[in-house]
Amino acid sequence: MKKSKSFWVFLVLSIIAYSVIQYLITYQIIDSLYSNMIILITINIILAVSLHLVIGITGQFSIGHAGFLAVGAYVSAIVTMKFQLPFPVAIIAGGVVAALAGLLVGIPTLRLRGDYLAIATLGFAEIIRIFFLNIDYVGGAAGMQVSHLTTWTSAFICLFITILVIVNFTNSRHGRAAISIRENEIAADAMGINTTYYKVAAFAIGSLFAGIAGALQAHNFYIISPTNFGFLKSFDILIFVVLGGLGSLSGSVIAAVFLTIVSTYLQDYPSTRMIIYSLVLVIVMLYRPKGLMGTLEITDLFKRKGGGPNDKK
Amino acid sequence: MTKNDGLLQVKGAGIQFGGLKAVSEINMELNRGELIGLIGPNGAGKTTTFNMLTGVYAPTEGEIFFAGKKLKGLKPYQVTRRGISRTFQNIRLFNELTVLDNVKVAYHSLAKHSMLSSIFRLPSHFAGEREMEEKSIEFLKIFQLERYKDEKAKNLPYGQQRRLEIARALAAGPQLLLLDEPAAGMNPQETHELMELIAFIRKQFDLTILLIEHDMPLVMGICERIYVLDHGQLIAEGTPDVIRNHPKVIEAYLGEEVAE
User: Fold this and answer.
1) Which of A103, A124, A145, B258 is 20 to 30 A from residue B240's alpha carbon, by CA?
2) Which of A190, A195, A201 sits opposite B85 (nearest CB)?
3) Is the overall model pTM greater than 0.80, yes or no?
4) Would you place residue B210 in the very low, low, confident or very high pLDDT band (cuts 50, 70, 90)?
């Protein structure tokens, strides 16, 4: 029963966080720069958490996440701009098509391991980008105009669902199967786990949420173009996961928040921006080589301090 | 005892990597309830034989039948679901998972709740997880590992890791258990405990066991029959007494007597 108790705590905390920020935005206590940064943070958290499922949980080193972000962005933009359908439909369509793309890419590539998988996913992401670059229907290299529809409310709902689904997946026999693949694929196989199935499933779920993040991002920036989805974007997402600590969901969330804030503030210093950003990364990796959180979750920290359920028994 | 009740039949199985014959013409017959040893010098092909039985490598020749059905072409996880599970020569635990979760992973394919039921936290998820938890704890109790259940597997002492690996293999619900050098790196005391454990689980779970081992007192002490491999071929088969005095076995281990 302690699982459902932590769910209610999570729900209450999220509602409080949502209301506070909604209040700040409605009464314009924070200006559009900050409200935009908050939406950007939300999108980045969704991306980080979805890639965390693939790399941190299942242990499949994919560096093509921007490809699925692009699929979600373009598909959702087509749904709202060309078919004039409502935004929620666009979000769902973006997610579903990205998940299908994830299946399509995942089934052949997830047979590969380590560096080979990384190169293959990188390649597929580039193929997706070039594909959109050459389609005149979506504006080609010039990009596509998209109306601004993303609000704090829609971004927050997507974030909430993302975290809930990924946490629920992780804390079940399916999540354990995925972790066992990360820990030792040969042993997982020998214990009766269909490793290919779980790798592809995790990859597809990760792509689904990357697609949703793409939909939010497309409707936040007024314009999308293929240059937004290059492999540097994939590395940005990868950095969230690695810096947060491989295998730690709260780590990826914290890293996404931290790095988004850092890079937003550094926009005032365009000439030194990338130098400082890189220095921050180097310093964190020097002092916390396993990432900010290691493999721990935020909830583990509370357990130690307050004497968690394990201590009582 | 139900003798002549064949559980595993290996008929002329062999495996070739490119031009290299790793093992060839392996003929084995395991009856239900037997405890069989597989010995041989280093590099004789013992672990390759295990990998062939568990689907890690597909045999390039011959056939393998388990409980009357062909095993050839099945993936390792399918072989495990048919009822063969194994341990590894170099321990392969899920290090970052707790002891309890290690056993739960093995119990995975026996649980039924779907991925969607877990994501939406439907009642079947809770029922399924609770059952897994109870069964896994039961398993840990049998192996006296219960007090370590929330410990990460990598933090266990070596002997307990070996024990956990056997517990995990059994949680997958096998009829045939393959143990790859279970006593490697153990001291005499631990080896003795292991022998007792093997005898115990065999009775408790009604198992057939095939084990690879270099520790001769252990093999001779508990195995009913022994197969001897050398250079990828079976050179002898029989009871411990027969094997001990078999000229080919002595030759394989000690070398040929020099003619004067």
Assistant:
1) B258
2) A190
3) yes
4) very high
CA distance B47 to chain A (A): 14
What is the distance between the alpha carbons of residues A149 and A197, in angstroms, rounded to a whole number? 36
Q: Which of A115, A65, A50 lies closest to A230, judged by CA?
A: A65
Q: Collect all residues of chain B within an 8 Å Cβ-Cβ radius of residue A172.
A: 113, 115, 118-119, 125, 129
> Which residues are B65's β-sheet partners?
B9, B70
What is the token pair recorded at A35?
Answer: 């409200």
Instruction: Please tell me which residue of chain A has the smallest CA distance to B131.
Output: A173
Cα–Cα separations (whole angstroms), residue A130 to A140, A141, A230, B31, B205? 9, 9, 9, 60, 58
Question: In chain B, where are the structural domains located?
Answer: 6-254
The token duo for A37 is 């940064």
The amino acid at A230? G
C-alpha–C-alpha distance, residues B38 and B129, integer Å: 38
Q: Residue A81 gets which letter from DSSP?
A: I
The pLDDT tens digits for A211-225 are 999 999 999 988 999
With the C-alpha atoms ordered A282, A288, A289, A295, is the resulting torsion angle positive or negative? negative
Burial bucket for residue A141 (CB in 10 Å: 0-12, 13-18, 19+): exposed
Please name the residue ranges forming H helices in A184-308.
185-190, 195-218, 231-244, 249-265, 273-287, 298-306
DSSP 8-class letter at B212:
E
Question: Are A190 and B86 within 8 A, CB to CB?
Answer: yes
Determine the pLDDT at residue A312: 33
For B31, phi and psi rounded to 5 degrees? -95, 155
Task: Compute the half-sphere exposure of residue B123: CA atoms within 13 Å on the CB side of its CA.
Answer: 0
Per-residue pLDDT tens over the stretch A222-271: 899 999 999 889 999 999 999 999 889 999 999 999 999 988 888 888 78
- Residue A273 CA, distance from chain mean position: 23
CA A119-A121-A127 angle, to 5 degrees, is 105
B63: part of which helix (H) or strand (E)?
strand B61-66
- The domain B6-254 having CATH identifier 3.40.50.300: the answer here is yes
